[in-house]
Design brief:
The chain is mainly β and 214 residues long. 3% of the residues lie in helices and 29% in strands. The chain contains 1 helix and 25 strands. Strands 1-4-7-10-13-16-19-21-22 form a 9-stranded mixed sheet, with no helix packed on it.
């Protein structure tokens, strides 16, 4: 099984694209990019030279991923979110050899119109709210909102805010997975952060609002 490319999209050679990946209208994959399997690139996306992207990554419309970016498996990039690769850009100063590294760790979400300033790491399963501006490293499972972005809580792998009891335990209302908070670190007790979700937990069957109502 090969990848799919819409007739309006461009894929420069050489690059590596995994099986089952789909590249939609007016998108551009530049040479040297490495992309895993079963990814989706929506309309008008750009992947720059030498970017590394894992598998099962969802990139919504109007997202540019610049050189220096490393994206691990299962990451979600919302519509029109912004990634950068130079902290102090000037048109008159060429910094092509100074691109800064940005790492989006496994399972994290970058919300619509959010901005991730380069040179930082967004932790596993962290959740960046729509419109937030992220300027420093983000912990695993952290929820970041606002301008500048500040941590406002913790999120489960299914995208629900975690409410910890006095013993530091929280249960995701959708999956039933338990999480433990120790200091400023959160981990899942029932499933390794490096493990894929079981098939029975991969399909959403109830709306987000229905969990809030409960």
């Amino acid at each position: 099984m090969a990848y799919y490319k819409h007739e309006s999209a461009f894929v420069d050679e050489p690059c590596t694209i995994g099986d089952g990946t789909k590249i939609w209208h007016f998108s551009h994959i530049q040479k040297g990019a490495v992309i895993g399997s079963n990814c989706i690139f929506g309309q008008n996306c750009n992947v720059a030279n030498d970017v590394v992207i894992g598998s099962n990554v969802k990139v919504q419309n109007n997202v540019s991923i610049y050189t220096g970016t490393i994206i691990e498996d299962d990451v979600f990039l919302g519509p029109s979110c912004v990634l950068t690769n130079v902290t102090n850009p000037r048109s008159q100063v060429n910094r092509h050899s100074l691109y800064e590294k940005t790492v989006l760790k496994r399972g994290c979400t970058i919300g619509a119109n959010a901005t991730v300033v380069c040179g930082i790491t967004v932790g596993r399963y962290a959740f960046i709210a729509a419109g937030a501006v992220v300027v420093k490293n983000v912990a695993d499972y952290a929820l970041i909102a606002g301008v500048p972005g500040k941590q406002t809580g913790w999120m489960s792998r299914h995208g629900h805010k975690l409410l910890f009891d006095n013993s530091g335990i929280a249960v995701c209302p959708e999956s039933g997975l338990k999480y433990k908070k120790a200091g400023e670190n959160v981990s899942c007790l029932d499933l390794s952060e490096d493990a894929a979700l079981p098939d029975k937990l991969r399909q959403g069957i109830k709306s987000y609002d229905s969990f809030k109502a409960g």
